[in-house]
Structures are given as structure tokens and as C-alpha cells.
Amino acid sequence: MSIVLTLKKALVIAKKDVKTYYSKPATLFYGVVLPFAMFGAFLAGRPCVTEDYRVVGVTALSTFFGGTTVEAVILPLERRTGTIDRLLLAPVSLKTILLGKSLAGFTFSFPITLIVLSIILPFAGFWNLNAALLVVAVALSVLSACALGLAFSASAEDIADVMWPMNFVRFFMIFFAGVFMPIDEIYAFMPSLKFIAYLIPLTYSVDMIYQSIVGVNNLTMLATDFAVLISSIIAFYYIAYKRFAKTLT
Amino acid sequence: MQELSSYGDLRSDVNVAIEARNLTKRYGKFTAVNGLNLKVFKGEFFGLLGPNGAGKTTTVRMLTGLLTPTEGEALIMGVNIMERPLDVKRLMGVVPEVSNIYVEMTAWENLLFIAELYDVPRDAAVERAKELLEVFGLYERRHDKAATFSKGMRRRLAIAAALIHNPEIIFLDEPTSGLDVQSTRIIRNVLRKLNKEGVTIFMTTHFIDEADNLCGRVGIINRGHLVALDKPERLKQTIGGELSIEVSISPIPSLEDLKVVGGDVVRSGDKFRIYTRDPSATLSKLTGLADLKGWKIISVRTLTPSLEDVFVKLTGLTAVDVERLELVRPSGRRRRR
Prior knowledge:
- The structure holds 2 protein chains of 2 kinds.
- By secondary structure, chain A is mainly alpha-helical.
- Helices cover 81% and strands 0% of the residues of chain A.
- In chain A, helix 2 runs antiparallel to helix 3 and helix 3 (51-81) packs antiparallel against helix 5 (94-124).
- Chain B is of the alpha/beta class.
- In chain B, a hairpin with a 2-residue loop joins strand 2 (16-27) and strand 3 (30-41).
- In chain B, helix 4 packs across helix 5, helix 4 packs parallel to helix 6 and helix 6 (151-163) runs parallel beside helix 7.
């Protein structure tokens, strides 16, 4: 199948998913309400967090929860109702189906994040905002989150089967990836554990978003952010593909 | 397997639409389908009959590429579906056991979405969707969400969705199971019409009368094995020696009372079926028993073997099991001799 046809089919699937699943309570709760509630709770409990980290934190949470949630809702629902068979029986490859699913996640989380940013940045201050880099950072972060959501939900038949383990991993990632404060502060109690942060793709999302908002201050780290996020997207998609394909055997 | 006639002698492989070669599916130690060999020819209406859990759905899922066989291969129009799935899937319309339509979308949106997946041009898709919705009696409800549809309407919409791209082959897994009379009738009429137009139909069912009435050829599958394969009438001839008497008696006696006339006795509504090789002798015993007990025989008729009898014999189920498992619809009756 040509790339154009693949993209066309993926868009058809994404359009259908938008129409069908965006208004599901699980999507709205886990994708929109929960990240903001968490952020609010954190602000209330930790007033020492700096203004720039508040903006970075809410941006990272929005990309991360939005992207992972849509995938975790769509695939199990489609599997439970048998509608996934509709897609598998059509002349559409599994890769295209997964691409369509992630596009659905992308079109949910990407605009929401940009809307949130357009509301809070005028109040918080623009620092040394690099808008183009911020858009790229948000896009890569959302795609990475979508791929992670796909990898988790590829073989699940129930939303709860995905949400519980994924929430565990998501919370782990949020607290150890420096979403709410600089990594050095998080690991101040035991610097030897800092390597954990560098194993988490979200760390690189946070850094990229941070540099795009407050100004580029470390080009090497920025290049690493690009490389890691793109690698994570490929790796999570590969895992999702393999896990899904296994359900067909 | 009981191979009673060889279509291969009459038709060349060029005319084979669906072929299973040693198709096998194992889940651990459990074998769901075991070495299935089968050819369905172009334009045929083929029925795969079997009790629940016999391996029908697994067979369809392997033939349509939804499941990878453990062994063997599935060929559609001579092409291995696992090797060229996208090409093969364009030729097929599949209606799974569950009506897998998008209930959040309208009937119209469902059909146009599927049409887009099959690259049906927009104008042709609109025309075809209108035609199908009219055929299936859903046109007036086309802008309603499928969530508001009854089970029968959803089933009809699922079949319409499988036909949107004018497939050459249609797979239907239990198409009328659990449906109302109106939906069942519409679906059967559409299937007959499609088959007349040359569409190859592969249908699984556990309704014996449905297979008997619709299918030109029937395969009986039990515990993953294909145990018979032929035209329904020829299958019936294989057990031609076994007949039965259907009798209605007032007052209704107990099964135990009737067993003294010999043979298996099965109650069906207010009637009894007595299976026998010698209807004349059994009837004499029955009238004698009726006189003795003071019963009034209201009606009596001798029945030739039905596909149900073949099914019972080959699957090892008893006639009572067939009744209990609802493998025969209330309207499914054996033919009067």
C-alpha cells in the first residue's frame, strides 16, 4: 500500500475514532480532568514550585495523559464490542490501523495542550518562548504518549485492564521524570538514583518543553531529547504491533 | 469424514472460491479445528453446520484471516490469505457472530465508513448504501444511531456493511441466531438473492433447518472434525433406513408409557416422535397401546430422515440434545413422507 493510501486510511480510522470515542467518560476523565486535578493538588501541596515549572508541568501532563488515555480507551472498547474485527477484515494493514488509532490520540491531546498553553502563557509570562520548538516538543511528546498507550492496550479487552497498570506506570513516570520540579531536586535525597529519570521518555519531553518555553540552554540535551523521543515512539509502536499481532494467533 | 460425493470431479480448481487445506487450530493441548480440508466453489451456497463449540467460528476466523492457523492454509480464489491478506480481503464481505457495528454512529455513517475502508468511490458508496438500507428495511432509520436499533436491525446493518463493496464471497457466522422472525426472513431472502446473482456464500449455523433450506451443500463439523460434506438431500440418503412416526395423542401420555412401543421417543411440543426402522410394526403397537390405555390418537404421520437426523447421527448428539440445545427452530419440521 502506498504511503498516501496508508495515510488516507489511517485518517479515515482516526476520523471515525474522533466521532466515536472522544465523548466517552473515560476519555474525558483520564485525559482532561485527572491531569489538571493532579496538577492542582500538587500546587496546593508544594507552593515552592517555580512558575516556569508550573507551566512545563501542566503542559507535560496534558500531552502525557491525553495521548495515553485515548489509546487506552479506544482499543479495549473496540476489542470488547468486536468492532476491531471490522477494521481487521478490511483491506487495511495492522500498521495502518495502529497509525489511525494514534492519530486519533494525537488529534485529542495536541490541540488540548496548545489551547491550555495559549491560555496560561499570557498570564505566566513568555520568558524566551520558542513557539516552533514548543509545537514540535508538544507533538513529539503526544506521539510518544500515544505509542505508550497503544503498547499498553494492544491486547486488552477492558479499559480497566489497561488503566490500572498504566496508571501505576504513569504516576511512576510523572514523579520520577521531573514533571513538577527539576530532576536534581527530586533526587537530592539520593543522587545515585538519578539514572531512573533518564530511563523515562517523559523526562525528555519535559526537558524539551522546558527549553522551548524558558529558552534553549543545552543543545546537547535538546538533541538527545529529539533522539530519545523519536526512538521511544518507534519502540512503543513496535511493542504495540507485536502485542496486537499476537492476539491474532 | 464421510465424503459422499466429489465435486472435484465435476469442477476444476479454477472454480474454487474458498479452500481449506489441512486447516488446524490448537490452543495448547486443545484442538479447536483439526485438519480441515474443504473446497467451496464459486457461486455456491455452503453451510457449515455444527453444535456450539464445534469449531465453526474458529474455522471462519481462519478462512477470513482473523486468526493464524496452527497448521495448514486458507485460500481465497486460489490465494493464501496469510500471504496476500489485503488483496484477498477486498474480495470478501464478512459478518461475524457479533454484530460489530459502531453503535455511536448512525446507520448511514457506518456504511460510508466501511465503504471508505474498501476504497469505494464516494458517489458509488452513497448509492450502494441507499440501496442496501432499503433492501434491509433500514432506510427510514438511516440517520438514527445504531445504539437505538434492535438486535435484528443491528444484524441487518452488519450484513449491509459487509456488502457495501459488492464482494464476490460472503462469510456469515450464525447470521440469524437469536433474531426475530422479520429480520430472519429479510436476511434469508437477501442471501438467496445474492446467491442467485452469483455471490459465493459461506455460512455457519447451528440451525439445521436453515442449512437445509438455504444451502446447496453442507459440511457438518463436530469437535473440530469435518464429519460429513455433501448436498443436504444426499446426506439424508445415507441414513435412509431410519424413519420416524410423529404422533399426537390425547390425553398426552408420558415418555415412559410410549417407550414400550420400541425405538427412541422424543417429545416435541404436544407431539411425540418415535424413531423406528419399521414404521408399520411400530404403528400397530402404538394403536394397540392406545386402545389398551384409552388414548385417542389425534394425528399420525410418517417422516423421512431429515438433516437433523444426519446431524444427530454424525455428531453423536441425541435427538433430545437437539431439542434441548435449540438446534431446530420451532418452524423447522421434518418432511412428510
